[in-house]
Structure formats: structure tokens, C-alpha cells
Amino acid sequence: MTVVMVGAATVLPSNPTLAELATPAHRVPGPADPGAHITLRGLRYKDHATRLALAAAQVALVDARMWDGDRLTVDGNRVAVVVSSNYGNADTVCRAVETIARESTAGTSPMDLPNTSSNVVASSVAIRFGLRGANVMLCNGLTSGLDALFWARMLVRTGRAAQVLAVGVEPDNAVVRRLTGDENVLDGAAAVVVEHPATARERRVPARARYAAYERAAGVDQCLSRLARHASAPAAWYAPEPSAAGTDVLTGLRRHDLARVWGQASGALGVLQCAAAVGHFDGGGAGPVYLVNGGAPERVTAGVVLDAPGAVG
Amino acid sequence: MSWSITGTGAVASVGANVNEIFDNLCAGLSGRRPLQVFDRSRYTSPFAYEMDDRGEESGDVPGRATRWLLAAVEQAAREADLGDDLSGVPVIVGSGLREHRSMELWHRTGVPFDGERLHFGAALQDRFGVTEAYCVANACAASLYALALGADLLAEGGAPAVIVAGVDMVTESMFGLVERMNPVPPQEVRPFDRQRRGAVMGEAAVAVVLRPADSPYQGRARATLRGVGVNCDAFHVTAPSAEGIAAAIRQAHEQAGIKPESVDLVMLHGTGTLLNDAAEASAMQEVFGAHVSTPVMTAIKSMTGHTSGASGLLGLIVAARALAEGRIPPTLGLTEPIDEVAGFRFPFGQSLHRQVDVAQVNAFGFGGVNAVAIVEAVR
């Protein structure tokens, strides 16, 4: 049994369409603005990563015809959430220890407590939209975004959920830049909705991409050769972070470097790639495509094969 | 579908392996000590349930949570005859705070720290050759959530075994902000007691090896996992919901194919906070109804402290031993139970000897993430 993508969204600087993600007409520098997509009322104490994720989640749920503006149109008990982020709350944690060292715990704000917990993004998404199914916060390094898609599929396959909202988010701030050693880091979120093709048909929601395979291996080469067992002639591939190995692989194949365009995307990259692939298929683009994350030499690389929604398989 | 637990491993403030931990808990030994690792002048809370393994170092050192996780995984893998080469074995780690403590030290003191070390994957690859590691940061329900995902992964086929682990240590940010929320600093964890004042953090790493129950593996199973229910209250970022907790318990019973009256032992989440204990007790009353006095219930955070994301799996390995040995650790410090636990049967003060066949393990976390596991004795 496979699963399909039935909704996709991004919240990025300059608000590109899905089709523009790989080759934006222009990129406005500076932070992404969740307020361009949702009302920020009631979100005063939410951190930036949470606001970005809430905005991407809402646009994706609308796109998947699960949210009609102020309520869910499907059973919230059957909707799961998988959020991928490595550095979502790194700045909150670091700011808290600075304050404690300077002023003792009396100087801290109780409003920071929920934001100190790494799963604040995933639970905030559930609370905002009433999503009571499994709620998974995945913090799995460079492969985390594609791992989130893998677990989203698993939650549908095992029957724990009818639909899964998968979100990838990373904020740009001084702590993240120092942790990654990179001045060019993503500020933004991407979200996709994963569903069983049968329930999507029942809801009369079109499939936009088909999940075909997932592999993990040590190193880019080994991961690519495993992906080739599932689909030997990809039409394009979405490459890992520019710092990763593998710049000389799959030469001749159309390559999309989203992290070069939007900055080092860490736990958001896989979901961002998936949203871009949905845009590719929406525009009539051919499949299959490879999504690849990770890629540091000898380190674990993850790969996903996505196919056009009408492809047989 | 059910799963055999073929190996267990753990380190905590009350012991350096599963035997020690279980014996000490049954003896009513607490891991509570004066706060060791942090500068005490910054905090009003004087105690924690720490593992202070810094040796001769003054001040804290990075990487301790990772070290504990590797120790627990090594114990479990060896017990399950997997050895030290885990290249084909997926490892799912539940951790509320990951390596946040190392990040805090990096930020404060400038010790080197790589952001890719926040999630344990690189360490598991270096030590055991693991290429399929996942870190689930589901607050205090993290390790039982990881257990649900691990069981699902095995049910889908592919791997002969899966390792599920949980690890958490006391971080300055969480310890400090939890303290900030308590009007009076709690001296100890007193689950379900009228005098409870809040949670006090503890430290632990736990690992279990799961195999499909029908696998050809011939080794000894410690217990059988029957099902794990997971959900989200979708209610509040820190406050629990009795309704959401009850739904998770019902889901676990349904997955395991049991009724409440079949449960002989419940390892309660029991954090000793006003809200958690009241919500958990109400949910148990609602689900168990007339059968609420059937199982023995206990809350080991009274001795281990609140071990955050590791706590659910710590409860599970204690339950597995209780199922095998017929010994149930007491709930320490519980002298005046709250009204909400009327009818609950706790072992007060000392351990209880009683054969139990089916155990339920509760774990709930910030954000209303709930996970409940059902385990059964192997006879």
C-alpha cells in the first residue's frame, strides 16, 4: 500500500508558489512572515518556529480540503501530526540559561516553559487545529525532514491515522547560525498532507504526488543505488545540503538545490523538497523524482522516491 | 500482533543496570540527592535525582546523556544476543530534551558542540554501526511514543528486531523553568499525595529490544508487548486533559484486546504535580470504573524523580520485572492520598509480593501527548 500527498504549503521569505520553490523569480532577503498567511492573534507567546509551522500547517490543511477557514472538515481524532525540526527551540533554551546565570531563575519568564520543550511546535499545531491523533516531534538531524515523511506514511499504513500533517520548520537566529556554522540558514516552514489514496478518493481530493519508496544508508552513493532499485530512471533530483558530499553524483540529471536557494534547511529540507516536488507534478512535471537528505561523508543519508500521482505502481 | 521484549538495559540515579534499579526500587530506595551539577546559588530547588558521573571534573561536561544512552543500548543488545554490531537494527530514541544540556554548556562556556550531536544518531552510528536511528522528542511521553513507532516498524516487516530507547538528563533551562512554575520548591516527588508540591527532575537512560512474538529467535523473552496507544489532547501546551488521557488508555486496551478488569498492575505516570496527578487519576477512574480497585498501582517517580522522556520506558522495564518476579515497588512518600485516587490500591511504604500477568504503563507529556503501553508476563 502506498500513500499520496493531497496538500502542500510553504512559508518562506518572499512567499513563493510551490512551482517557484526550485527556481524563484526573486528572493527577498529577511525573515519569513507567518502573518502573511494566518492571523497572529493569540500567538503572542509562541516562538517564531511555532508561528511559521502554524502558518504552513493551515495553508496545507486548506489545500488538502481539511480546514474550511475555522474548523476541520474531517475527524480530528484520526488526523496525526509529524513535525521535523532540529533547532526550533534552540534559542529559547540558550536564552533561558543565560538569564539563569545572570539573574537566577527569578529572572526567567514562565511563558518560556512550554517553548523549552522540544515538542512545542507539534503540540501547538495539534491544539490550533484540533488534531487529536498521534503527535510526533522528530528531531533527527539532517535527514529529519524525509524521516518525517517516512513516519507519516507509517501512521497511515498502520491505521493509526487517516491523514497525517507533516511539517518541517527551522528558524534563522544567531544561535542556529553558530550551531550550524553557517550564515545562510533557512527561515521558514513547509507542510504536506499524507493520506491513503482510497480515503482521498472518497473525499474527492486529488492526489498530487505518490510516495514510492524510502531508503537510508551510510553515504550518498549507497543511498542513491538503493533508490535506483525502486526507480532507475528519475526525471530530477532534489539534492542534500550544499555542504554535503555528492556534488558529483547523478550528473546529467536535473538537480534542485533548495538549500542553496533558501539557506541551510536542516530538519525542514525534506518536507520543503516534498512541497517543491508537489509543485513540479502540479505543473505536469514528469516522475519519478528523488529527494535526498544528509550526505555528510560516511554519515547517514536518507532518500525518498516520489512519483507523479497518476503513475502506475 | 504482539512483540517479545528480548533484552532490557537501563541506568538511573537508583542503579547502573536493570537488576540494581529493580532491587533498589523494591527496597524503597530513593535516588534523590542535593543538586550536584549546577550552581546551587542560581536555584531555590535544592534537590534532584541525578546521575553525577563527571568524575574529578569541576563543573559539568558535555555528552553525558549520549553516554548513558549508549550504555543502556549496549546492555539491552547484549542481553538479546544482538551483540555490538547493530547495523541492521533500527533504533528509536525517545528524549524530551535530547542533548540540550551539551548545547547549554556550549552556549555558556564555549565547549565545542556540533548541532548534529543533539539527536544521538551519529553516536549510535559510531558505536554500533546503526544507520536507522530516529529521535522522537515527545516531551515526557517520548520513550513510550518511540515504543509505539518501534512496534509499528516491526509490524510492517523488514527488520528482525528493533531497539527502543529513552534518555533524559536534567537541563538548566528545564530545571529552572519548572522551578519558576512552582510557588514553593518541591523537596521530593510525592505522587498523588495531598502534600505534593510538583515534579523534581531525574535522570535515566533505558533501552529494550523488541522482536515479533512469532520470530524464530530462541532466546528468552522478558515480557510480551501487547499494544501501545498514542494520541494528543489538542488542549493545552502544558496542562493535561483527563479526557485525552482516558482516550489513550482505551486505545491501548483496544490494541491489546483486553478489558480494564484484565489489568493487574498499573505503572502510573504520577509526576507529583497538582494537575497531572488529578487528571491521571480522573482518567483512570473513568476508564476502570467499578474495576479501579482490581489492579495494583504504583508510581516510581517517587524514587527516580521525573526522568522526563525516559520515564515511560523505565516504567515498562520495571513492569516487565514485576510480571516476571511478582514483586511490585512501593510509591514512596504517599501517606495522604488525594480524593481522586479513592479505591486505588497502592503499595504504601514497602514493596508488595503478588503475581501479576498484565501491566499497563502510562506516560504523558507537555503538549498533551499521551502514550500507554500494555505488557504481559511470559509464563
From TrEMBL, chain A:
Residue ranges constituting the Beta-ketoacyl synthase-like N-terminal domain according to the UniProt record: 38-170
Keywords: Transferase
Domain of life (superkingdom): Bacteria
UniProt name for this protein: 3-oxoacyl-ACP synthase
UniProtKB/TrEMBL annotation, chain B:
Sorted UniProt keywords: Transferase
The protein's name: 3-oxoacyl-ACP synthase
Keyword Transferase: yes
Source organism of the structure: Planosporangium thailandense
Presence of keyword Protease: no
InterPro entries for the chain: Beta-ketoacyl_synthase, Ketoacyl_synth_C, Ketoacyl_synth_N, PKS_Beta-ketoAc_synthase_dom, Thiolase-like
Gene3D superfamilies per UniProt: 3.40.47.10
One matching Pfam family: ketoacyl-synt
Domain Ketosynthase family 3 (KS3): 1-377
Family: Belongs to the thiolase-like superfamily. Beta-ketoacyl-ACP synthases family.
